[in-house]
Write a structure and sequence with these properties.
Layout: H1 5-8, E1 13-17, H2 42-56, E2 74-77, E3 92-95, E4 102-106, E5 110-116, E6 121-127, H3 129-133, H4 136-146, E7 154-158, E8 168-169, H5 171-180, E9 188-191, E10 194-197, H6 199-209, E11 214-217, H7 232-237, E12 246-252
Parallel strand pairs: 2-3, 7-11
Antiparallel strand pairs: 1-12, 3-6, 4-12, 5-6, 5-7, 8-10, 9-10
Length: 253
């Protein structure tokens, strides 16, 4: 489990970014696969989620997960929220509820955890290029501000994600971003006639554009096998038909 130095200073919350270590799954899912959407044994995934929950706080409620769809949709959980067995289709969770761990699953996309310790509001965002491009980060911060948060009190952490040197993209991908804004070219780099995209830097710019100053970036490349994270791109490069999911989690104590 990796922790943010900035979030660790806040005693009112627990959090963690988990890689593939310390679980019960076998084969290509070895070992802490937390993805119910994978083809792993569901009962084993449940055991893995319990391992994570106990590391965060054994008095916690079940981990709240989404059916992630690479969107800009958000879910807000207050005391009146109606829980269901069917996961909501969305890519960010915001809550004010204590002992409720909220989490996102990734396998190269960026997990982002946010906390306003003054207002006791937390958020977890799943931001691949699509979600970030569609403005999910702006939407979450706007919602938090609507709930009374001040940007100067928000701590944001960009968790482990695919690094730009591992993220090769096509020309049409780059064109899409440049059509949106010419200065998006700073997120692309050409090396030996191949184009690479810096997702982490793109997200960092969006946080800064939203006047968030207290930002932590955990520079761990999920594609690099040495870091032991699940990676969709690496699985594809190895011709594997599925992959495990990393979990990033935050809870108000």
């Amino acid at each position: 489990m990796i922790c943010s130095k900035k979030l660790s200073k806040l005693k009112s919350i627990s959090h963690g970014f988990f890689n593939a270590t310390g679980g019960k799954s076998k084969g290509i899912y070895k070992s802490l696969n937390c993805g119910p959407g994978s083809n792993d044994n569901p009962s084993v995934v449940k055991k893995n989620l319990n391992i994570v929950k106990n590391k965060i706080g054994n008095i916690a409620k079940d981990i709240f997960l989404l059916h992630q769809i690479h969107s800009n949709k958000i879910v807000y959980i207050n005391k009146n929220y109606k829980f269901s067995k069917i996961k909501p289709k969305a890519d960010a969770i915001i809550t004010t509820q204590k002992k409720l761990p909220i989490a996102v699953l990734t396998a190269d996309c960026a997990p982002i955890l946010l906390c306003d310790d003054k207002k006791k509001i937390i958020a977890a965002i799943h931001a691949g290029w699509k979600g970030a491009y569609k403005g999910i980060i702006n939407k979450v911060i706007k919602f938090m501000k609507k709930k009374g948060c001040k940007t100067k009190n928000i701590v944001a952490v960009i968790g482990p994600t695919i690094s730009f040197k591992s993220y090769e993209v096509r020309e049409d991908f780059k064109t899409k971003f440049l059509k949106r804004a010419k200065n998006n070219k700073v997120f692309f780099k050409k090396i030996n006639s191949k184009i690479y995209f810096n997702l982490s830097k793109y997200i960092l710019k969006q946080l800064k554009d939203n006047k968030i100053k207290d930002i932590d970036v955990i520079n761990k490349d999920t594609f690099n096998v040495k870091n032991n994270f699940f990676s969709a791109r690496r699985a594809l490069s190895l011709s594997q038909n599925d992959y495990g999911r990393n979990i990033s989690i935050i809870m108000i104590n």
